[in-house]
Amino acid sequence: MHQLEGKTLILTGASMGIGKALALKLAGHKVNLVINARSEGRLIETRDECLELGISVEYTVGDASKTRTVQAMAEKAESMGNFSGFIHAAGVLNPGPYIWEIEEHDFLTVFQASVHAAFLLIQQCVPKFLKKEQGLAVFFGSGAAEKIQPGIAAYCAAKAAEEHLARQLAAEASKIITFVYRPGIVETRMQKQARESSGGAAEKVQEVFKSWKEKGMLISAEESASALVDLMSADLKRLHGKVWDVRDLGG
What we know:
Elements: E1 8-12, H1 17-28, E2 32-37, H2 40-51, E3 57-61, H3 67-80, E4 83-88, H4 104-132, E5 135-140, H5 153-172, E6 176-182, H6 189-195, H7 202-214, H8 221-231, E7 243-245
Parallel strand pairs: 1-2, 1-4, 2-3, 4-5, 5-6, 6-7
Helix pairs in contact: 1-2, 1-8, 3-4, 4-5
């Protein structure tokens, strides 16, 4: 029996990539889900595949950096019963331009997806967990939070901010199991976007991201998702306040 079996979790970014793979892995362990993404068609596909695994699934289409979207997810999770946590897997890369070339809208989109959405999940969900004196908050981080990579400045800064927000939550709400998961170098749409990016720093971005693929360094979304589910399979308390990297887990 998995530690989370029978519990209800919110999962963002569930329409494709690691998010979808994670939804299916959790469903396979009988974890009930409220899934979210901005693409309704793909999200319904994820829901249907999860339902086939015998769990309860609700979905909310919309931007997770909007209060109404996160409120809807939290309400659905509460109504399903045993609402126990959230996993914030959604993110936006927008690769290619140097910092001064980034359009304001694109910059804000990256921060909204990682940081503002994370804040709203904390705001809407953590008070509910505190009343129960337990809960789980998982944030997708990245090695980019500690690196300087021309062409993805907004993403690097946003992930650094999201990871720090997670550390703050871990310190301020000790009864909520909070940690950061760095999923590794995964073959996803983001990777493809980086390899095909345009802008002043595109050549620098492409050089790095193409080399990872050429050297066979990419792992699948399923491998990364499995590593996270395995990580959460035992004593969750050991995860609190830490950054866990799939490469350190043998993923």
